[in-house]
Amino acid sequence: MIWFTWRLHRTQVYAGLALIALVAAIFLPYGQAVRGSFSSHGVGACLAHDTGGDPCQTAMIAFVQQYNGIANHLSTWFSPLPGLIGAIVGAGVLGREYEQGTWRLAWTQSVPRGRWLTQRILLVSAGIAAICLTLSLVFTWFRSPMDDVTGRFAPGAFDLEGLSLTGYTLFAFALGVLAGLLMRRTVPAIVVAFAGFMAVRMPVEFWLRQRFQTPATRLSAPTLHHTFGPSAVPTVPGKPGWTLDYQLVNSSGHALTSAEQARLDDQVRTMHDSDAYLRGLGMHLKTVYQPADRFWTFQLIEFSIFAGLALVLLAFAVHQIRRRGI
Amino acid sequence: MTAEQTASAPALEAERLGMRFGRSWALRDCSVSLPAGSVIALVGPNGAGKTTLMHLACGLLRPSEGRVRIFGEEADSGSAEALARVGFVAQEHPLYRRMTVAELLRMGQALNPRFDRKLAEMRLDGLGIPLDRRAGALSGGQQAQVSLALALAKRPMLLVLDEPLANLDPVARRDFTRTLMSAVAEDNVTVLLSSHVIADLEAVCDRLVLLNNGTVRLDGAIEDVLAAHRMISGPREAAADMPGVVRAVHSERHSDLLVRTGVEAELHPIWQEHHVGLEELILAYLEQPAVTR
Fold first, then answer.
1. What is the pLDDT of residue A314?
2. How are beta strands B229-235 and B254-260 bridged, if at all?
3. Confidence at residue A275, expressed as pLDDT on a 0 to 100 scale
4. Which of A180, B16, B189, B289 pairs as cysteine with A94 (C-beta 3.0–4.6 A)?
């Protein structure tokens, strides 16, 4: 089965290696440039000294603005790719057999078809994992200076680094295998598998992921000039986490109502040092966030969700093949 | 299962076999026993259930009801040994088109315990089929030969061929039949083959199973089946009393009847008697499915 699977999938393996080569050719030199800028702006020194003061804020903002936008764009373009690659490889496993009629050749050799499909799935999954993990390594290396500043939880970082990319691709692969089995056609199975992939992937990214663990909260000096989002630079020492929400809270720790907030906005509009005024009122800035050290926990949860779904789908496909045959 | 039991069991034994796709039955209440060592023609119109029966015999399908045994073992047992015993050449002889002939043989060797790659290479070489050519670049006749070589190299006890001669030109058809016959002589393999072309079957097969509408209409050694039928012609008014009529073709005063012999009493001299050919016989059964007994 090893040689047979290799023979059927070797073109895809070559394509995967070509993709790695392409990504490396673009991102390794680019990563060097990012590192150059990181040191020339003195970002490393700033991070080492508690994000230190206004000059450092300016330096970090300059560095992030130079690279983070592009890095995030690149990852936005790359993010549907695991779904597409997984769906294409997966749909072909059974879709092509049905389309070309070769299932009748394959399953009348002496390897029972349940075993045939199981072994083929395991070997292809191993190949997918190897290629995706290599890609993740390249992306992680490329992004690491940016990650030091903006954290590893931004979609552009979290979706490409660690195990998540591998989990996504395996999930799309499993969807492709099952769609190929049920539809018996390759191209429609790719479309359905990709749509199914996005239908799970997007809610996990935008709704579920921030709920993996109860977020932490932190009170800090009040300010109306906080930045929020993937380009935010750290204002407190330590590795930046994933900021979910900022709120001004009053001296008793309650969040301002929207009426209070509006009134406050009116009051401070003309003030020179609004932050000092807020401090005088005993206010604090409450940050709701996922701490940076939860990165690997979150990666494991994300991977478990997608790889677990993949396992269920593939087990179902094998069961179907054994039970009904064609 | 011991070797002896396997050897003495029928090559294929179907017992009230039924296969349903959705609401319609492709095969129903099909009972047939095919002895080992014969070459069996499976005949019937499109949709008669020939392919379904063959897929059931290869374990590609699981029966909706009843059972089918190959040399005594359930065909859908899913065991590697059961699969190794049956060689299958599917309709349109599918191959992995991007693989070369040599790669297909390597696949056969990788996936089968008793695969005889040398023999297959020799056979294909003898037919002038280049081993380094991709399957997709071969002619239809060559693809059929490669499929047959793959199935035979498994050293199966039963070889199942689904419409192997369809889409082949007359020369390819003759070559294929020739390869098949020499393999049967050398390997002592039982063959079940379906075809539309009755003339091709007559030269190759010694046994006939006729399927129509998912059931077995006729089953027996071709010799016996032919001997058990004859064509008679005579006056139309006498035709109504004739027992054992398979099919009657009436003109105004005259009737041609296909009858089963041994059923009627001494034939009245007003009837003229002819021997019946295989093609004629099969057509008669297919045209007139309602057999009077």
1. 97
2. antiparallel
3. 78
4. A180
Contact A1 B111 (CB under 8 A): yes
Pairing of strands A284-290, A242-249: antiparallel
The answer to whether the CB atoms of B107 and A4 lie below 8 A apart is yes
Contact status, residue A164 vs residue A158, Cβ threshold 8 Å: yes
Instruction: Give the strand pairing for B190-194 and B39-43.
Output: parallel
| Beta-carbon separation of B112 and A323 below 8 A | no
Closest residue in B to A322 (Cα) is: B78
Query: How far, in Å, CA of B90 to CA of A101, rounded?
Result: 9
3 state DSSP class of B11: coil
pLDDT at position A51: 60
Q: Is A290 left (phi over 0), alpha (psi -120 to 50) or beta?
A: beta
Residue whose tokens read 């039949």:
B177
Question: In this model, does residue B185 exceed pLDDT 70?
Answer: yes
Number of other CB atoms surrounding residue B174 within 10 Å: 15
What is the tens place of the pLDDT at every residue in A254-306? 888 888 888 887 887 777 777 788 888 888 888 888 988 999 999 999 999 99
Sheet of strand A242-249: strand arrangement = A216-220, A284-290, A242-249
Contact, B19 vs B25, CB < 8 A? Answer: yes
The ipTM assigned to this model is 0.88
Residue found by looking up tokens 């005024």 in the block:
A277
Residue A314, min C-alpha distance to chain B (Å): 19
Question: Which chain A residue's Cα is nearest to B75?
Answer: A108
Distance CA A175, CA A184 (A): 13
Q: Is residue B155 predicted with pLDDT exceeding 70?
A: yes
**Could you give the CA distance from residue A107 to residue A114 in angstroms, rounded to a whole number?**
9
SS3 B205: coil
Sort A2 into a burial class: Cβ within 10 Å, 0-12 / 13-18 / 19+: exposed
Q: What is the reported pLDDT for B39?
A: 93
Instruction: Tell me the mean pLDDT in the region A202-217.
Output: 92
The pLDDT value recorded for residue A92 is 96
Is A70 a residue whose pLDDT tops 90? no
Distance from CA of B45 to the nearest CA of A (A): 22
CB nearest to B80's CB, from A1, A111, A323: A111
Q: Which residues contact B109 (CB under 8 A, 6 or more apart)?
A: B115, B117
Instruction: Specify which residues B216 forms β-bridges with.
Output: B211
Q: Which of A282-291, B125-134, B154-163 has the lowest mean pLDDT?
A: A282-291
CA distance, residue B42 to nearest chain A CA (Å): 19
Asked if residue B32 has pLDDT above 50, the reply is: yes
Interface touch B83/A108, C-beta < 8 Å? yes
